[in-house]
Amino acid sequence: MKNTALKVHPSDNVIVALRDFAAGEEVVFQDHRFQLQEAIPTKHKFAERDFAQGDIITMYGVTVGKALLPIPRGARITTTNLAHASNAYEVGKRQTDWNAPDISKFKDQTFQGYLRADGAVGTRNYWLVIPLVFCENRNIKVIREAMLESLGYATDRDFSVDMAGLIQQYQNGATADTILATEVIKTGSDIQRNRLFPNVDGIKFLTHEGGCGGIRQDSETLCRLLAGYITHPNVAGATILSLGCQNAQISLLESAIAEIKPTFDKPLYLLEQQASKSERDFIAQAVKKTFTGLMEANKTTRQPAGLHHLSLGLECGGSDGFSGISANPALGYTSDLLVALKAKTILSEFPELNGVEQEMINRCLTEESAKKFAHIMATYAQRAEEVGSGFDMNPSPGNIKDGLITDAMKSAGAAKKGGTSPVVGVLDYTEQVSDPGLYLLCTPGNDVESTTGLAGSGANLIVFTTGLGTPTGNPIAPTVKMSSNTALANRMADLIDINAGTVISGEDTIESKGEELLELLIKVASGEVLTKAERLGQDDFIPWKRGVSL
C-alpha cells in the first residue's frame, strides 16, 4: 500500500503528510494511530507528540524550531505555533570519514566537451558581450539586435518569419503566385540549423546595474565576477564595453583575469566609448571584433572528456515541503557520485545552511576551511540582524504555504543537495573552485544571485531543484530544473527537465533518481540535450553587491 505519511529521520518528532488529510481523520503510521486535530495539507507536518511551549521541534535530525505555545499530538505545525530556532555551532573535532557510492556504472563514461588550452573542459562554447558599467546596457542591446537572430541564435522564440527569403524572391522576379506558395515560417530549430558558426553554441549578451556609484568594493567584486565568466571553460572569448570614467575600470578587470588565470589566452576585445570616434563607430567596432572572435571560436569542436572535468552547481529555489525529501537528496546523491568520480560540486546559498552549520563544519577536511565557513556564516547573520532582518526571515510566502515553516526547516532540507561527501574547500563570493570535491560557496539565498555566483566560481553545469516551479536559467552554465513533485512536473512541463516526484510515490529511490540525473547531465554536457531554460533563452544574471540579501 502506498505510504501516506513519512518521518524523514528516526529522531524527528514531526511527521510529513504525503497527501491531504481531513480534520478528524485517523492516520496510521509505524503502528501508531494519530487523530488529526485539523486538516493537514500535503507536504505539511503534524506533531508526533504533545509539545509544551518552548519545546524543541526536530526534523531531518536537527532542530528546526521552538513551540510558541502548546501543540497537541496530531496538530498541524504552522507559523502561529512554531518559531525559528537552530542549534549553536563551533569548530571542533571534524568527522570526514565517508562511504563513497558505487561508481562502477559511470567510471569509464565520457562526455563530449570543449577542451581549452589550460586543460579545462567546457560543456558549451559561448561568446560573451558584457558591459563594465550600466551606462553601456543600451549599446549591448543594439549589438544583440544586430547579431543574434541573423547568426541563428534566437533560441528564445518558437519561430521567425523569413522576410529575407521573400525579398530575395521578389528581387529575382518571382510572381505573386510563387510568393504566396513560399514557406516563410522558420522554427526555432530551423534557425539554429542555419547558424553561420555551428561550433559556437551561442552569443550571450549580459547586462547589469553595476560598475559605478555605490561603493568601490561593489565594482571590484563585479570585475572579479565578470573575470570568472570570461575565464570560464564554457566561454571561448569576450567583447567588453566600457564607458571610460566608471569605477569598474578595464585595469580592474584585467587584474582580476590575471589573478584567476595567469596564462589567460582567449580572445578578449576591450572597447572604451569615451575614446571612440562616435557611438556608431564604437558599435561598429564591437560588432566587427565580435564577429572575428566568433570565427576563431568556431574552430573549437567537441571532444571526449572524462567526467572529472564536470563542475556542478547545486541550487534550489521555489522550494516546497517535498524538496528536502525527494529532489534535494537525489541531487545530493548525484553530487556524491561526481565527487567519487573526482569531479567538483558546489553548494551555495549560505542563508539556507542556517541550522546545519555544525554538520558542514564537521565535514570540512581542514580546520582552516571550518573556521572560514563559521566566520562567514556568523558575519552574514550579524549583518542581517544589524539591518533589522535575520536568517529567520528567509522563507518566502510560497515556501511557507507549501510547508517550509522556518528557515532552519528550509535549510535542513536545502543542505541535502550537498550529499554526504567531505567539504574540500570554502569559497567566498567570486572565489574559484580548484581541486576535485565538494565546495561551499557564499552566495545569498536569492535564486539568480546564487546561480550567477555558481557559474562565476566555475560551475559548468547547474542543477536547480524546485517544488513550486521557476523559469530560472544561467547565461553560460546549462541549468537543469528538477521538480520535487509530479504535479509540478506535469503542470510546468515546459520548465522542468526531470521529475523527482517519483521518489515520493515510491517508483524511484534517492539513489536511482540520482543516477538518472547524472545520466541526463552527461547528455546535457555533451550538447545532446538542451535544457528547458536554454530553449526558452532564460539567461538570468544578477551580480551580488554584497549587501544583505537573503
Furnish the topology, listing elements before pairings.
Elements: E1 5-6, E2 14-17, E3 26-29, E4 32-35, E5 45-47, E6 56-59, E7 62-67, E8 82-83, E9 110-115, E10 121-122, E11 126-131, H1 137-147, E12 159-161, H2 163-171, H3 176-181, E13 185-187, H4 188-193, E14 202-205, H5 216-230, E15 235-242, H6 250-260, E16 268-272, H7 279-297, E17 303-306, E18 311-316, H8 327-340, E19 344-347, H9 357-363, H10 367-386, H11 397-401, H12 407-414, E20 423-427, E21 437-441, H13 447-456, E22 461-466, E23 479-483, H14 486-491, E24 498-499, H15 501-505, H16 510-525, H17 532-535
Parallel strand pairs: 11-14, 11-15, 15-16, 18-19, 18-22, 19-21, 20-21, 22-23, 23-24
Antiparallel strand pairs: 1-2, 2-5, 3-4, 6-7, 7-8, 9-10, 9-17, 12-13
Helix pairs in contact: 5-6, 8-16, 9-10
Give a description of the structure:
- This protein is of the alpha/beta class.
- Helix content is 31%, strand content 19%.
- It is built from 17 helices and 24 strands.
- Strands 20-21-19-18-22-23-24 form a seven-stranded parallel beta sheet, with helices on both faces.
- Strand 18 (311-316), helix 8 (327-340) and strand 19 form a beta-alpha-beta unit.
- 49% of the residues are buried.
- The mean pLDDT is 93.
